[in-house]
Amino acid sequence: MDRRGFVERLLTFDTTDGEEAPAQRWLRNRLDELGFETYEWTADPDALAAHPSFPDEPEPSFADRPSVGGVIEFDDRGPTLVLNGHVDVVPADEGVWTGDPFVPRWDGDRLTARGAADMKSGLAACVFAALSLRDADADLGGRVVVESVAGEEEGGVGAAAAALDNPYPFERDACIVAEPTELRPVVATEGSAMMRLELTGRSAHAATRWRGEDVHPHFERVREAFAALERERCERVTHPLYDEYPVAWPVVCGTVRAGSWASTVPARHVSEWRLGVAPGETVADVERAFRERLDEVAADSEWLREHPPTFERFSVQFEPSEVPADAPVVEAVQAGMAAEGLEDTDPRGVTYGADARHYVGAGVPTVLFGPGSIDEAHYPDETVDWRDVETSVAVLTAAAERYLSK
């Protein structure tokens, strides 16, 4: 199979905003042709609404978004290893790209397109590794599963559905998610709480602004309090895999909307926040800490005592996840790396979330390993080095062979 051609074709599909179905149909057809036994599932919006990571009301956008699994079975007695990737991508602003984001282009070994790093190249590497494993002269048991899931960027729609209701007639024993980890094993992923802050002031004509209550100073006090809490948490909440980060548990105010007119004192403020959640914590833990700090700010203000701010969850919540560094699937990846001459096999933690949390939550030990860098993910002119893709195929093949060897 022409590996470059396979990835190029996968990259031509615009799989943003719930548009995964055409790419998933194409991929399932290719897996059928290549001899995989294929499965397909979609998420039940009502079931996801009951999941603590998702909004409490069913999201219609979670329906009709197929995820696909392809199985190669060696025997029915050994373990099952899942090689997982997500087919969806974040939107691409063509105005800041140097070319069409969905027309792949090469510069030597550098491949540029939306999804090149995050993570269609990693997904394709899973396919190539499974085929290499099938063709290897090795005494293997169990089975390898290649998964292409939908909606990872929206909280893991396909993975969460698979964790809630196993789509296969067999159990899953371990999983490797081929996220862009720079060819290093990742055993811990950070979580995030998504929160919406609302403040109420009093409007007035700008010419008599003293009659109003400007929300901006109140927001500044909240922002400063949250920044201080971020610093305190980074000193107090420690984890050996996160010592390398200058800010281990980042807090970001991503959007701010306030006021209605330049000549009117702004009376309403809405901002949206992303709060980092350390492995070992829960979203609820971190939400509680920031609520308490917000209450302290409000208690120091006569206006906010009388007009209490609200601070509520919105969108999808990412719980952190962690798997023991000596889990067999981690050791299999490390052995595969060593076989390919990769020396930096020490497990690490990352400050982003991934579908690993859904599988870990379902009792399936999961490690991240794949080509490309998170520095390329979600960026204009997203690029991956093809040599890293080929290396990841070899490592995944060797890791799976070790894990499934009789």
Protein architecture, described:
- By secondary structure, the protein is of the alpha/beta class.
- It has 2 domains: 3-188 and 318-404, Aminopeptidase (3-Layer(aba) Sandwich); 192-313, 2-Layer Sandwich (Alpha-Beta Plaits).
- It is 33% helix and 20% strand.
- The protein is built from 11 helices and 16 strands.
- It has a 6-stranded mixed sheet with strand order 1-2-6-3-7-15, with helices on both faces.
- Helix 4 packs across helix 11 and helix 9 crosses helix 11.
- It starts with a helix and ends with a helix.
Annotated CATH homologous superfamily of the largest domain: Zn peptidases
What is the beta-strand fraction?
A: 15-25%
What are the secondary-structure elements, in order, as H or E? HHEHEEEEHEHEEEHEEHHEEHEHEEH
The first-level CATH class of the largest domain is given as Alpha Beta
Q: Strands of the biggest beta sheet: in what spatial order?
A: 1-2-6-3-7-15
Number of domains: 2
Rounded to the nearest angstrom, the distance between the terminal CA atoms is 28 Å
Q: Quickly count the helices.
A: 11
Biggest sheet character: 6 strands, mixed
Low-confidence stretches: none
Radius of gyration: 23 Å
What is the CATH topology descriptor of the largest domain?
Aminopeptidase
